[in-house]
Amino acid sequence: MCAFKRTLLLFIYLCVSTSNIFAQKTIPIDSSVQQYKFTLNEIEYLEDSTNKLSFDQVRGLNSSFKSNLIYYPINKNREYTYWYKIKLRFTQTIANKSCLFEFFDQTTENVTAYIPNEKGDYIINHSGAGVNFRDRLYHHKNFEFLIQNTSKGEYTYYFKLKSNNPVKVIIVYRTLGYFIKYALSEYLLFGLFYGMILIFCFHNLLMFTAVRKKQYLYYVFYILSVALYEMSVDGIAFQYIWPGHPAYNDYVYGIALYAMSICALIFTKELLQVKLKAYNFYRLLNAIIVLRSAYFLYCLFIDKSLFIYKFVEVVPLSIAFVTGIYIYKNGFKPARFFVLAYAVLFTGFIVKAIDALGYANFLPAFLTYYSIGFCFIMEMLFLSFAIGDQVRIIRKEKDNARDEIIRQMDINNRLKDSINKELEMQVNARTKELIRKSEELEDHSKIIEEQNDLLININHQLEEQSAEISRMNILLEKDNVQLKTDIDKVTEARALSTELNFEEFSAKYPDQESCYKFLAELKWRADYTCTRCSHSIYNAGRAPYSRRCTKCSYEESAMYNTIFENNRIPINKAFYIVYLIYSSKGTISSHQLSQKLGIRQSTCWAYAIRIKKAMQDHKSLRKKGNPQGWVSLVM
Q: Comparing C-alpha atoms, which of 185, 27, 45, 168 is closest to residue 99?
């Protein structure tokens, strides 16, 4: 029986001990405590899925609060309202009420604190990124709530939190003096950080002004985007730039992230000369720019809540990183600092990701909190080295090219001197030879003079004969022109009246150009008038002998509105078909046309139908004295 009692007492003790492990811990505070961060089971939380619970209802649900089992609580369901509860026990009264609670995550939209006063009532205070900055207790980037009652005793504090962003709930107790010291040190660091960013901007602007390379300008835009993003997530921008517009906090950090990604990709293309050195990566970077822009526009105009997914920036930055590694391996030396810069930046992202997952609690808080900012500074420094290295290499290449030019000019000068000496020797030798030959020429000149006298007499005779030949040539040329004119007239007359074979007919219309020229002269024999706007001034069109209106730019071909419109066979053969049908008065069959021209019988039959109809239409015109012949069927 005694053994059973001892076992039962041991079981009860273990149960009580286990419950104490998970029970909320009350934190003792005295005047020596300057700062205390609440972690693990020092914080209890309650999820309000209805978002309607009042403070009195929450106080009545104290037993429903759950113990926090991770280092810092997180609002896992962003659609819910979260209530947090902490307990302090002042072991002594702290004078001047110089204590406060501080929340660190500046992206939290609404935080409401319920602080007990001396009467036991709860005082309600509001803060957050969704509240006008000027309404805060202190004009500080974090959220502070003054502790109303610092008398000796134990107190419970409640905090209501609602945020569309995933936030890490870090609640810190601080004395007012420690808060001021911490804030001054932090703002000094921010001043150094943003001051370095401004220095980088001015330096690269001056470099852009000096060398006119676009990469410096893209780098300035990238640095400014980084600064805007850091100011947005730090709360500095809300404090100094748009304190009266809390709605901007939902957009600006997303816009800054987009600008940072796009500027980084464009800067990568320019700095690493990706188009020349890795064209496939160049196309990939352009595709990433298009996709990232589409995602940004969707977030901006349709669903701004997607801005919270900051991990999408890993994709474009990873592509830029891999591009830098590839180009560096292919021998482009400036890429080494680029790769080093992105390696440092990715280290910062990894530290931040580990911290977000709650696995970086072993690291100092300042290291995890400022890891991205520090890595951005190091990245900017290395990227500046990369730009400078590229400029140095370009300058070295120019110096080498200049030295090579000077060396080549020296070689050319020596070669020129050598050639000049050799030429001088050759000139002297040549001069002596010329003197000798000139003496020989003097002897020959006497003989030539005698021969010239003889030739002069002969030339006079030839000139007289030449004049007679010229006169005869002029007469012959006139006869040839007259003969050619007579032949053309005879050929045209035969073409218009009697039947010619295709070879004879082709002598008059040998090719398509002559046919188009004939149609153009026939069609516009009077004056040109545009069929669309009746304008009378034209230019030559793209098709042979077509005309384009200078007013409406309508181009009309020579075959338009003629019997040859929509012609599908060689135009000279089409001319000959019209000629044959006209000369035979429509009696020639399509089979005969097919045999003569080597064209399908169906095509000849279709042309015969069209031409016979034109002949029928022109009977009345011929009776009125209009020109006869097959040409009358063309228009």
A: 27
What does pTM read for this prediction? 0.57
pLDDT digits (tens, 9 = 90+) for 115-132: 998 888 999 999 998 889
Structural domain boundaries in the chain: 18-183, 213-394, 502-528+558-633
Q: How many other CB atoms are found less than 10 A from the CB of residue 270?
A: 18
pLDDT at 241 over 70: yes
Which residue type is seen at 243?
Answer: P
Specify the higher pLDDT residue, 42 or 493: 42
Closest alpha carbon to 296 in 253, 348, 236: 253
Spatial separation of the C-alpha atoms in residues 296 and 293, rounded to whole Å: 5
Name residues whose C-beta falls within 8 Å of residue 48's C-beta, 6 or more positions apart in sequence: 58, 80, 81, 82, 83
CATH number for region 18-183: 2.60.40.2380
Answer yes or no: are the C-beta atoms of 151 and 93 closer than 8 Å. Answer: yes
User: Residue 209 and residue 226: Cα distance in Å, rounded?
Assistant: 22
The one-letter amino acid code at 478 reads: K
| Average pLDDT value over all residues in the chain | 81
Q: Collect all residues with Cβ–Cβ distance below 8 Å to 26 and sequence separation of at least 6.
A: 87, 88, 89, 154
- pLDDT tens, position by position, 580-600: 888 787 788 888 888 888 888
pLDDT at residue 372, rounded to an integer: 67
Residues 341/383, Cβ–Cβ less than 8 Å: yes
DSSP 486-512: HHHHHHHHHHHSS---HHHHHHHS-SH
Mean pLDDT across the stretch 309-320? 84
Q: How far is 595 from 574, CA to CA, in rounded Å?
A: 14
Q: What 3-state class would DSSP assign to 379?
A: helix
Q: Does residue 21 have a pLDDT over 50?
A: no
Note the Cα 32 to chain centre separation in Å.
59
Name which of 374, 314, 379, 313 is nearest 341 in CA terms: 379
Residue 543 vs residues 184, 547, 560, 591: alpha-carbon distances, Å: 81, 8, 12, 33
Mean pLDDT, rounded, for 69-86: 90
The per-residue pLDDT for 283 is 92
Q: Of 16, 68, 21, whose CA–CA distance to 42 is shortest?
A: 68
Alpha carbons within 13 angstroms on the beta-carbon side of residue 375 total 19
Q: Are 158 and 84 in contact (CB under 8 A)?
A: yes
CB contact at 8 A, 403 and 396: no
Pairing of strands 66-67, 122-127: unpaired
- Residue pLDDT, tens place only, 355-396: 666 665 666 655 666 666 777 777 777 777 777 766 676 667
Alpha carbon 61 to its chain's center? 56
Tell me how far apart the alpha carbons of residues 315 and 264 are, in angstroms, rounded to a whole number. 12
Beta-carbon contacts of 399 under 8 Å, excluding residues fewer than 6 positions away, are none
pLDDT at 80: 93
- For residue 218, the model assigns a pLDDT of 86
Helix (H) or strand (E) holding 292: helix 279-301
pLDDT of residue 366: 57
Q: Which two tokens stand for residue 201?
A: 């901007």
Q: What angle do CA 201, 207, 211 make, to 5 degrees?
A: 150
